[in-house]
């Protein structure tokens, strides 16, 4: 799985679509709903069941990060499955605090 910046992916089990913002430091598997994601141009329609451990959903416009690998992805289309990298759940990236205006 070649997770290059700007590459687009889709879930194999729900409607979620993703864009890689920052690639991981080491190779690994991006997953949605407990199943490996597919390239956006793959003709397969989403089938199967979202794993109950990875059913927290993907939100459109939110960035998801895996701190250990440095991977960062953007939710381009919402879906029922949640994201993981090599089996470890990815977290929503928090907003940067703005500097204080005195």
Q: Overall pLDDT, averaged?
A: 92
Order of strands in the sheet with most strands? 5-1-2-7-6-10
The helix content is under 10%
Structural class: mainly beta
Radius of gyration: 14 Å
State the helix count.
Answer: 0
Give the number of domains: 1
Low-confidence stretches: none
Q: What overall geometry do the principal axes of the alpha carbons give?
A: globular
- Largest sheet composition: 6 strands, antiparallel
Distance between the termini: 48 Å
The portion of residues forming beta strands comes to 25-35%
Topology, number of strands: 10
N-to-C order of helices and strands: EEEEEEEEEE
Topology diagram in text:
Layout: E1 8-10, E2 17-22, E3 30-32, E4 35-36, E5 38-39, E6 63-66, E7 71-77, E8 83-85, E9 88-89, E10 91-92
Antiparallel strand pairs: 1-2, 1-5, 2-7, 3-4, 3-8, 6-7, 6-10, 8-9
